[in-house]
Amino acid sequence: MERSSDLHHFALSGKDNSGSIAKYIVTCGDKSVETTTSTAVLSDFGVGKQTAYVVTYDAEGNASKQTKVSFTVKDATPPEQVTGLAVPVADSKYKATLSWNPGVDNSGKVAQYEIQLDDGKILKSGKTMLNVSKLSVGEHPCKVRAIDKDKNVGKWSDAQTFTVKDMTAPGNVSIKAKVEENSLLLIWKTPKDNVGVTGYILKYGVNLEHTEILAANELSFRIDGIAKGSYQYRIVAVDAAGNES
Length: 245
Hints:
Blueprint: E1 2-3, E2 7-11, E3 23-28, E4 31-35, E5 39-43, E6 48-57, E7 67-73, E8 96-99, E9 112-117, E10 122-125, E11 129-132, E12 138-147, E13 160-164, E14 175-180, E15 183-188, E16 197-205, E17 210-215, E18 220-224, E19 232-239
């Protein structure tokens, strides 16, 4: 007997003292089929265990005892496409929570969800949410699909894209000062940043009244014409998102 969630093929055979079988009647629940061949087909069964009964008839209309046939119909219908995938907001620790509506399946319950993040590795969740961490700065596409207990896989949801902003400031700038007659040479090294330093803001003067905006590759600055006395300077690194050290 071949079977699927839609069609069930019964291979039939029987013997009679007259030498010929006139027909078979196969019944399963409220479905019944009569055939004069060795094959019977029933359709539109529900998922789960089923029991069919076969009765054989000879040419005189004599009926055999019922033959019981038990079988299990496996679920071959995938869950529906997942909806409601929300656009998350990443926090300052570069973490985010993906969430979506509960999946719909003919068996009544979705067993698991698969989530694809950044068109890469497939992540799994038994809930309608997934926490993701260690997100890089930039855009992150994501989509989700449902899987039922019989491993039928639904279609991917409509994709969503969320943006992770850079919220990490560059490290402090290590700066050295060298007095040369009536000038002051300031020299520093590029500090660490998760994305990269894009420039520097240098303030200097008796009361830090002067400001210079410097490019990322400018790692020194000379202040000429300084007079004797107390002099101040302060420098901060800036990244592309405007975070300052």
